[in-house]
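=== RUN LOG ===
request id: a7f3
mode: sequence -> structure
chains: 1
length: 373
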Amino acid sequence: MAIALMLLSAPSRSQEQPMDMEAVPVTPAVPGEQPATVDGSQVIARINGQVVQACEVLWIVNLMIDQNRAKIPPNQLEEVRDMLMKRQLAALVDRKLLYDAFRRGVPAENLPKIEENLNEPFEQQELPLLMKQFNVNSRPDLERELCRLGSSLSDAKRAFNERVIAGEWMRNKIKVDEEISPIEIHDYYQEHLTAYDYPAQARWEELMVRKNRFPDAKQGYAQIARLGNEAAKKAAITTDPKQPIFSDVAKTKSDGFTADKGGQHDWTSKGAMAIKPIDDALFSLGVGQMSLILEDKTGFYIVRVLERKESGRKPFTEVQVEIRDTIKKARLKEAQDKYLAQLHDEARIETIYTGRISADALAGRGPDGKMQR
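=== RESULT ===
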């Protein structure tokens, strides 16, 4: 089948994300800490006859607990563990259903060859990612870290194979019409006009003096005035209003968080600044004009606008390619959801938490397919 050839090139994690569980940020665990675990070989679910062992989700659960242990009261640890196990188990449903559909649609004798084709992608793509995530430099170290969390390298390899196969199976099964007429694109633009509005933006530079550096506010005010006077001398001999003039003073005397960059700030949208006096100044000053001394509870500021873009709306001609891609993605997602809903309707899910239950109910979805609160 075509899938056997397509699997010679494994997709990236980003490509398979719609079918995979939510990404889990991985940080190195504290050396010596051993998470409490259940038996990784314990069967926790059957999905259309596929056995799901605890080890498939246990390492993710233990990792989450490791990273948040300080926030979890000891008497709630097992309750939290159960909740995370259920959540991660639910996240496996789509992948398992797709993999089961693949197994039923492909001759059993083809499976070993397909899995063999995935050895190289695992070694070249997935293994380096895992080693980076766990901050280790060798396979034995990675194996030990996975084992500590209740998994193994062979489990990781099996999960990788399932993710890739599930993704390729979905791509094989789902066909969408990629022909999108100019009228559809224009109608979409008209229906989503506000999505293409953009606020005014300013590129600017800043001098700042923190109040807590001085015994009283008057001394801080005097210091920002001195910095402003130094900058004003340079402004008097600068003919280009877009030319930065705060750089030398900012690098040596300003307390602003961009001081090491000469006090310069990249494009900032109107309303984005938490300090209202600065936000107001950025969109009322003329380009090249220095502000008066501005103040908030933290310090004193002088700002100068280098460039400004007025608010507006992106024209249709500028966004039609983007809209075409958006419509394509929406069609693809609709087709994927429809196919997955069909698999869900036909699925038989049994778990240690819920007994026999539909895939939708396990994932927390109601009869309409939407997530329940």
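=== NOTES ===
The longest strand covers residues 299-309.
Strands lie at 43-47, 50-53, 197-198, 201-210, 264-269, 294-295, 299-309, 312-313, 349-351, 355-357.
=== END ===
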